[in-house]
Write a structure and sequence with these properties.
Layout (H helix, E strand, L loop, with lengths): L3 E2 L2 E6 L2 E2 L5 E5 L2 E5 L7 E9 L3 E11 L25 H18 L23 E7 L20 E5 L7 E3 L8 H16 L14 E8 L5 E7 L7 H13 L3 E8 L12 E6 L3 E5 L2 E5 L9 H15 L6 E5 L5 H6 L5 E6 L2 H13 L5 E5 L2 H4 L2 H7 L4 E4 L8 H10 L3 E6 L2 H9 L5 E9 L9 E8 L3
Parallel strand pairs: 5-7, 12-13, 17-18, 17-20, 18-19, 20-21
Antiparallel strand pairs: 1-2, 2-6, 3-4, 4-5, 6-7, 8-9, 8-11, 9-10, 11-12, 13-14, 15-16, 21-23, 22-23
Amino acid sequence: MGRRDKELLTDILIETIAAEGKAIAYVNGKVLFVPFAIPGDIVDVQVKIKRKGYLEGYITKLLTPSPERIESFCSHFGICGGCKWQILPYPSQLKFKQQQVIDQLTRIGHLELPEVNPILGSEHETEYRNKLEYTFSSRRWVESGTEEENLSPAKRVGLGFHISGLFDKVLDIQKCYLQHDLSNRIRLFTKRFAIENNLLFFDIREQTGVMRNIIIRNTSTGEWMVTVVFSNETFPDTNCTLLLDAIAAEFPEVTSLNYIINNKKNDSVADLECINYSGNDAIYEVMEGLKFRIGPKSFYQTNSEQAYRLYSVVRDFAALSGSEILYDLYTGTGTIALFLASKAKKVVGIEYVPEAIEDAIVNASNNNITNTSFYAGDMKDILTDRFIEENGKPDVIVLDPPRAGIHPDVAKVILRSSPAKIVYVSCNPASQARDLALMKEDYIIEKVQPVDMFPHTHHVENVVLLKRRDI
């Protein structure tokens, strides 16, 4: 199949795609993982990782392109860590995502499945995200062997996305197709202004510089939010306020302009105060007449159109009659809870992040929804038998946990509460399979619906309807 020459494998046929999006070939009985390849490609591969059961490498030469291979549309393809499936036609992407869901549920969970519904693809394959975060860097990534390697430090600044595996390198982005083009114009303007006004880009190694991040959000109603993250204890610094004033003047579309001061060694801002500089302190998304407040640190599904389709699947699977008590576990800002509230007698939402619960309560009030209760805290600490006694036994439970899935103790409480239905929403079918395996003695899987939230990536959402076996 291939010839090894100083770890170079030649004439390798790419056969399929793995769950994490890397293409797969087989060499001497071992699995070979190759990024930026698709089934049908014949390639030369340089091995960079050798393990007992597998190899991992990168393409050095594309010998024969797959008949399915198409041209990438982004100039950053192959370097940027996002949109790795641009070279695969979208219908084929959906086919592999559908199969990924089936394989993980059956192979990891050993679950019996009904016929899986066809995946719901995204109407828009580009400009579908409503949030992007860019990082300033004084050490932008440059390709080895090019003239850019000789750039002076002053010209090696960049504003874009982190290079995978390199915490201190940022790819300077010229055009990103993930968000409406206004996001590109805001980013490029901000970069240019910072350079012209001597606002130093942050050096993550030396912990020096002023400009750290810029977060750009938008909604389907046309509202835009920009949050600039500075590293500057003496804010307001004249040049920093000049930058904010310049953004506000240049982009009247920005209805919420904010800033955060981050003097920590990492980029996380969840624990930091966000200050509204001009405009409103939030933007609003609308879904079937419901308004959802999105603050600078709020969680909201990053593909608004597909979020509506996802929540509609949850509503269809729950099939509420109006008399049920519904628990929405890992409720976030309460979007699913509020979306379903008009169909239920009572909705109880639980979420770890206190700020998210504050948003959920505000959203309920703004929409005149009075049959919801929200609680903040660790799920395994909040969801107890006593909590269920106090709030009522659930008829339906909706689960939408983080990628790691649910804690085993949470599964035990859910099983003891014995709801008639469980609707499990997951962004990670592998952890979903593991969790469903814990419930398969008491529940049967009645429906499975994959939903694609992120075209050109391997990520896939999946919704599963469980019904209690004795019903």
